[in-house]
Sequence to fold (116 residues):
Amino acid sequence: QVQLVESGGGLVQPGGSLRLSCAASGFTFSNSYMSWVRQAPGKGPELVSAISPDGITTRYGDFVKGRFTISRDNARDTVYLQMNSLKVDDTAMYYCNARYYGMNWWGKGTLVTVSL
Fold:
């Protein structure tokens, strides 16, 4: 049974930081492309960041502009998203996604709220 469990969301002030984690199980994590996708209220989903199975190749949404860092620990089957300099516009539900040989799985999300 595939599971992706996100954690680390919460309420933070503008300029603050959060570290999201996504713990994976039920598939070969080390062979999977992992991504973080977010969806703000009333808006469509957008890619935040993605990382290759070996962790060497990463990409980010244009809005990230050097503020976020994606990483993974294949020994722990976990992908992370370090988010710094958070803005009010970063408020959204953040979802973990795994792609593995044509299969696609999603976590239930973790809510990030950036507010004074």
Summary: DSSP finds no helices and eleven strands in the chain. The two ends are 40 Å apart (CA to CA).
